[in-house]
TrEMBL record:
Protein name as catalogued: AB hydrolase-1 domain-containing protein
Residue ranges of every copy of the AB hydrolase-1 domain listed in the record: 70-264
SUPFAM superfamilies: alpha/beta-Hydrolases (SSF53474)
Name of one Pfam family that matches: Abhydrolase_6
Family matches, as PANTHER family: ALPHA/BETA-HYDROLASE, ALPHA_BETA HYDROLASE FOLD-1 DOMAIN-CONTAINING PROTEIN
Length: 287
């Protein structure tokens, strides 16, 4: 009887320990020392204060007057993830601000919160960019958690163009998808153990992590992009996110791409598709 009880308890205990370790890893800050901009890059290092002693670190790359500017940020990385996008946009005349989200890179923050508190840093970065470039039209590109943080942020005034790449619809979907991709059908059973940790570790409920609901507030022209083979944010979920957004909007499937950097996956295709759209919304007419 004792052996049977141990046989039942030990696997359960192992699953519990593994879920606690995963919860710690997923919310632990992804900090790294980045240093000054690379040699030859026309960029300025910035530290943008917000809240109670918090700050967002980034690089500002100036563009040409009237071409607009773009706020860039991704997930579990830092501004280096957006560097090639920033270089490309600068060559095309657009300014950009590539930032480390809160709890990423050189920015402050105690926990990764899947976009909810990162939104405060995004708001500060938006405000800084508007003050630096008064009169310019402003867009943003957010990847995965970075896109969620854009949706949770107060965009006042609203952006002139918004690109969301590989954004999860709800944290429940995100956790189930990722665990199922790694563990198979057992992942759906393990998901509740991770979701139960959200209020304990982060201080708010899973109901506050629903980009599917937040996207209804967008009033900017919108692109929703994702890979058709993405197992972390399944294509049907991207379609649901897109359906919840108001017009004007554009759905952009990237054939064969998983949960990867879409710019790196197909750089020529990415640029050919996105540049005319950004220019149409951010560029000011002559005169």
């Amino acid at each position: 009887m004792k052996r049977l009880l141990l046989a039942l308890l030990l696997p359960s205990l192992g699953i519990l320990i593994a879920s606690l370790a995963a919860g710690e890893w997923l919310t632990r800050p992804a900090r790294v020392l980045i240093g000054p901009p690379p040699a030859g890059l026309n960029a300025q290092a910035v530290r943008i204060p917000y809240g109670d002693g918090q700050q967002v670190s980034g690089w500002f790359l100036p563009g040409r007057a009237g071409e607009g500017a773009v706020l860039l940020h991704g997930v579990r990385g830092n501004r280096l993830q957006m560097l090639e996008r920033a270089r490309w946009l600068q060559r095309e005349g657009m300014g950009s601000l590539a930032v480390d989200l809160p709890s990423h890179g050189e920015s402050s923050g105690e926990r990764i919160t899947f976009g909810r508190r990162e939104a405060l840093g995004v708001q500060a970065a938006q405000g800084w960019l508007r003050e630096r470039l008064p009169g310019e039209r402003l867009g943003a590109i957010g990847v995965s958690l970075g896109g969620a943080s854009l949706l949770f942020a107060e965009r006042r005034p609203e952006l002139d163009a918004l690109v969301l790449e590989s954004v999860y619809p709800t944290i429940t979907d995100a956790v189930k998808d990722r665990l199922t991709a790694r563990l198979g059908p057992a992942g759906a059973w393990a998901a509740p153990l991770l979701l139960l940790q959200v209020p304990l570790r982060l201080g708010f409920s899973v109901q506050e992590l629903r980009p599917l609901q937040a996207i209804s507030t967008v009033r900017a022209p919108l692109v929703v992009a994702s890979g058709t083979d993405d197992r972390s944010t399944r294509w049907v979920e991207t379609e649901q996110l897109f359906a919840a957004a108001p017009e004007p909007k554009l759905l952009w499937p990237v054939p064969g791409a998983g949960h990867v950097d879409l710019h790196d996956f197909d750089t020529p295709g990415y640029r050919a598709r996105l540049l005319p759209w950004l220019q149409s919304h951010l560029r000011k007419a002559p005169g």
